[in-house]
Design a protein that fits this description.
The complex is a heterodimer of chains A (about 425) and B (about 550). Chain A has about 425 residues and is of the alpha+beta class. Chain A has helices spanning about 45-55, 90-95, 145-150, 160-165, 170-180, 190-195, 200-210, 230-245, 290-295, 315-335, 365-370, 375-400, and strands spanning about 15-20, 25-30, 30-35, 60-70, 75, 100-105, 110-115, 125, 130-135, 185-190, 215, 225-230, 250-255, 260-265, 270-280, 310, 340-345, 350-360. In chain A, a hairpin with a 4-residue loop joins strand 17 and strand 18. Chain A is globular and about 70 Å long. Chain B has a seven-stranded parallel β-sheet with strand order 4-5-3-6-7-8-9, sandwiched between helices. In chain B, helix 5 (about 100-125) packs antiparallel against helix 7 (about 160-190) and helix 8 packs across helix 15.
Chain lengths: ~425, ~550
């Protein structure tokens, strides 16, 4: 059944473009591997976001390699992988595609067919830059980033540390609080702690946070597992619900007269800019998973683009600027890179703005927030690749030009704990 | 037969080792027959080569006589050959590149063919009653018992191996040329397919490697930069860098260009077509192959000649040869001395934190730079890198940080803070001019300036004069001189005293530990800066 497999996707590194003299001219293109999917509850959303990005890249400049990460974290590539229609029947798609693994070599990272061919080259493609478009724990939280880092390949978006910090809402709040960025106080709870002492858990929450409270898994995005509780009974229900999604939850005060505003930031520690602001329209008390990804009409296959929202958000120029500035400050405080979306809450009663969460890889890469400012999606992707390359060369420079092995001249014979 | 077996085994070991040594030398001479030939003519090398085949030569009469006793003696001689040819650990050992392997195979085949050609006809005739039968009939061939002597022929071949290498090279030459050309064409194709890539050529007698690293660091603040690694500065080195390391995302390629002969730079330029060029310095280096300084100047300026009208050639105007050379190109000048340069580093100050200097951009705005590096040549090289980086669109204020990040090459006038003392570590230097330049740098410090040196060694006849010369020079440049080795540093002592250096500030010690004790004992509140000059072990602690 593997006869379709092992087609080299980019064996030609160049394309032929006509120039003005009418003769053909070859141009070398940057080879970008777009990674999506993965072992995450937001697997499907990631496939949509990933292929959206795949299609939006400027093909004159980039040679694209789609890399689908299955829910078992296996990597697949092939021509069919890039077409969303094929994901209705994933087993069939995988049968017709090529399973690969990454191989780091001195001059680049290669995608090698697995199992390898007995004869001939098993190289399927080579990539210069990795472009992860993944959502949720196990991928977006620094796991995929660490995996890519291991191969010394430049990759777009946040690095390991920023990804990990933003993914745990408690850690994120702590870091932001330290820099004086407004966040709501919270309590974190473990599922086992709750099982063994419900009463103590309620006391712990009630001592610090006044009702109504909101309960959410500490490391899930896309509003999964979130419920509001107005009393102890509802708190029990909300906790039980949240613990079905993860072992650690976070409880904070629920702002009842709430406005939510989202704003994306593009850049890195050195230079970062804020996008337009949007206001997601909630059908319930909080924006649920269905609101975000499913309610958009045609079964959600258009991703975040069709989620209900007001764009630009109806804000006074002053409030808009306050939020955009706060977004950039948050982005830089967390050491984010590439494009991230920061979700804010405004308490209508007090007009106070709070940072709610930051998505290191937002759904649809929040491209619609940039389009609203006149920046096309392809340009956003271009900027992200440039930032990936910038981070890579800054890391290279850190290693300095003079390599040396400290052990070379060391006396190792008497080293502690060293076996003879 | 057994004796012959022993003889042959020893012979083979010796011959292979000798061959590898010669191959190594051929590689070190860049596979250039002419340079290799020159190398062979150098006195010490003639001696070395003779030494390696001495026992083979001594064996010649022994195997010619051919008695059992003589052959046993010949076996011993071969044993000696093995001993004298035993490979030494080299600083830069022979690299078994595909080319070297191809050449070794060819040499082996030539060996066999010549040996067979010499021996077989005689043996054949012996077996066939003195006649050599060929398709054409009977051929008279020279025959002599000695020609039938396999040992003799092999020994002669052993002695002739230095030339056998040249022959093998000549045989392989057309193939090598084809292979090289394939790689060159492939590199040219890659460059053609990257029309946006900007290429900067870097050449000069000194400082080009430093400038390349500095420039690469500065340009990396804004661009994706590839530079030729190490001293890959020949055409094939450049080709290899392009083929192995060039990525589609690179914006700039910095290409170091080395020259041994007229036309070398042009050859690289014809491949890469640089948009910009920088000539860091010109001096009488490789005069053997260039013959005149004019040839060196014109070779370095082959880079300027290759720069297109839209490009720029950056020239170090502190260098007289460069300043006086004519070029019709768009020149951007830089330096530290001359006042009329486009980019000039001025108000240079040196402190234990490194060098501070000022530079202006084209609008006349002044920027104050700080670098960990010291020494006027370093500042000069940094000024050149700043000139290029700024011309390529990086604002001056964005260059302040990367200039501060530049690292010094270890033991090359490297500023090291060690506890409460500051070292100016120039331990790898070993020539007079470098010594003087380091003293010039020491002089610029406001701290208590201490010279610590064992003097220069292995200078032969010039030992006394050159050491005395730096002694005289040092007299006005340091406050204290700590000299390691009372006897050895006599010439420096003479020089210092002759120039009026106070005798009570000249401290003679026996070893390094004592030297540092004495340095610590020098009285005064002032911070001490210690120039460590020449040939000291790596570890000072």
């Amino acid at each position: 059944m593997r006869k379709h497999a092992a087609r080299r996707l980019n064996c030609r590194r160049t394309v032929w473009q006509g120039n003005k003299e009418g003769e053909k001219k070859a141009i070398m293109k940057i080879r970008v591997g777009v990674f999506f999917g993965g072992k995450s509850v937001e697997h499907e959303v990631s496939v949509i976001s990933g292929l959206q990005a795949y299609n939006a890249f400027n093909k004159e400049k980039y040679d694209l390699v789609p890399v689908y990460i299955t829910k078992e974290n296996e990597l697949y590539t092939g021509e069919l992988i890039a077409d969303i229609a094929n994901y209705r029947n994933i087993p069939e798609l995988l049968k017709k595609s090529t399973r690969v693994f990454l191989m780091g070599e001195k001059n680049g990272v290669k995608l090698i067919q697995y199992p390898e061919k007995k004869f001939g080259s098993s190289e399927v493609a080579q990539i210069d830059v990795a472009f992860p478009v993944v959502h949720g724990a196990n991928v977006e939280d620094g796991s995929l980033q660490g995996f890519l880092r291991h191969y010394n390949i430049p990759f777009a978006g946040c690095d390991v540390m920023a990804s990990a910090v933003t993914m745990d809402k408690y850690v994120m709040k702590t870091v932001l609080k330290d820099s004086g960025i407004p966040v709501l106080d919270c309590v974190t709870l473990y599922g086992k702690e709750f099982e063994s002492g419900e009463q103590a858990t309620y006391d712990k929450v009630e001592q610090k946070i006044p009702y109504p409270v909101i309960v959410k898994p500490v490391n899930l995005g896309s509003s999964v597992g979130i419920k509001v509780a107005k009393d102890r009974e509802e708190l029990r229900e909300a906790l039980e619900y949240a613990f079905t999604f993860g072992p650690k939850v976070l409880v904070e005060h629920a702002i009842m007269n709430l406005r939510e505003i989202n704003c994306a930031v593009l850049g890195d520690y050195e230079e970062a800019h804020a996008s337009e602001c949007e206001e997601p329209i909630s059908s319930d008390e909080i924006l649920s998973y269905e609101d975000k990804y499913v309610a958009g009409g045609k079964g959600g296959s258009e991703g975040m683009r069709t989620a209900r929202r007001e764009l630009p958000a109806n804000l006074t120029p002053r409030k808009r600027e306050e939020i955009r500035e706060l977004a950039v400050k948050t982005f830089r405080t967390l050491g984010a890179s590439g494009v991230s979306r920061i979700d804010f809450m405004i308490d209508r009663d007090t007009d106070q703005v709070y940072v709610n969460e930051i998505n290191p890889i937002p759904g649809s890469l929040a491209f619609y927030l940039w389009e609203a400012l006149g920046k096309p999606y392809a340009e956003l992707l271009d900027d992200m690749v440039k930032l990936a390359l910038k981070r890579e060369r800054e890391e290279q420079n850190m290693l300095t030009s003079f390599e040396s092995n400290i052990l070379q001249n060391a006396n190792l014979s008497g080293a502690k704990g060293m076996k003879k | 037969m057994i004796i012959f077996g022993v003889w042959l085994a020893a012979y083979l070991v010796g011959a292979v080792w000798y061959l590898l040594y010669l191959m190594h030398m051929f590689q070190q001479n860049s596979y250039k027959p002419q340079e290799y030939g020159e190398w062979m003519r150098v006195h010490t090398n003639v001696g070395r080569l003779l030494g390696k085949c001495l026992y083979a030569v001594v064996s010649l009469p022994l195997v010619a006589i051919g008695s059992t006793g003589c052959l046993i003696a010949a076996c011993l001689m071969n044993g000696m050959t093995v001993l004298v040819n035993k490979p030494h650990k080299a600083k830069k050992p022979l690299v078994y590149t595909p080319r070297v392997r191809r050449m070794l195979v060819t040499t082996g085949i030539l060996y066999l063919l010549t040996a067979a050609a010499a021996v077989l006809p005689g043996l054949w005739m012996e077996a066939n009653g003195g006649m050599l039968l060929t398709a054409q009939g009977i051929l008279p061939v020279p025959d002599h018992p000695l020609l039938r002597n396999v040992e003799l022929v092999l020994l002669l071949l052993f002695v002739l191996q230095p030339f056998l290498i040249l022959l093998a090279n000549a045989v392989n030459h057309p193939v090598e040329k084809k292979i090289d050309q394939y790689y060159i064409n492939d590199a040219a194709r890659i460059l053609r397919e990257m029309p946006e890539l900007k290429i900067i050529g870097v050449t000069g007698s000194y400082g080009k490697t430093s400038v390349k690293y500095y420039l690469s660091t500065l340009l990396s603040t804004q661009y994706n930069v590839l530079h030729t690694p190490g001293n890959y500065n020949t055409t094939l080195g450049v080709v290899r860098t392009i083929r192995e390391n060039m990525k589609p995302f690179h914006d700039i390629f910095i290409c170091e260009m080395g020259a041994r002969e007229v036309g070398d730079i042009k050859e690289i330029c014809d491949l890469v077509h640089p948009d910009y060029g920088i000539i860091t310095s010109i001096g009488p280096q490789h005069l053997q192959s260039f013959h005149t300084i004019e040839n060196i100047v014109s070779t370095k300026f082959e880079l300027a000649d290759s720069v297109p009208p839209s490009g720029r050639i950056f020239l170090n105007y502190d260098n007289e040869y460069i300043r006086n050379a004519k070029t019709g190109k768009n020149v951007v000048s830089y330096g530290i001395a001359a006042a009329d340069t486009d980019f000039r580093a001025y108000d240079i100050e040196v402190s234990p934190k490194g060098s501070f200097f000022k530079m202006k951009d084209e609008t006349g705005k002044t920027y104050e730079f700080h670098t960990k590096l010291v020494g006027s040549h370093n500042v000069q090289n940094i000024a050149g890198a700043i000139a290029v980086a700024h011309t390529l669109g990086i604002p001056m204020e964005k260059l302040l940080y990367p200039v501060k990040q530049l690292e010094s090459v270890p033991h090359r006038l490297q500023l090291v803070r060690q506890g409460d003392r500051i070292l100016l570590d120039d331990a790898y230097n070993s020539n007079k001019n470098g010594f003087k330049a380091a003293l010039d740098t020491l002089e610029m410090f406001r701290e208590l300036r201490i010279l610590l040196t064992p003097g220069m060694v292995e200078l032969g006849e010039k030992q006394y004069d050159e050491n005395k010369e730096v002694g005289v020079y040092a007299a006005g440049k340091c406050d204290y001189a700590v000299l390691v080795g009372k006897e050895q540093t006599k010439p420096i002592q003479d020089g210092l005293l002759e120039a009026g250096f106070p005798a009570n500030r000249m401290i003679l010690v026996d070893d390094l530990q004592e030297a540092f004790r004495m340095v610590n004992a020098i009285p005064g509140e002032k911070q001490k800066i210690i120039l460590i000059e020449n040939d000291l072990p790596d570890n000072y602690a």
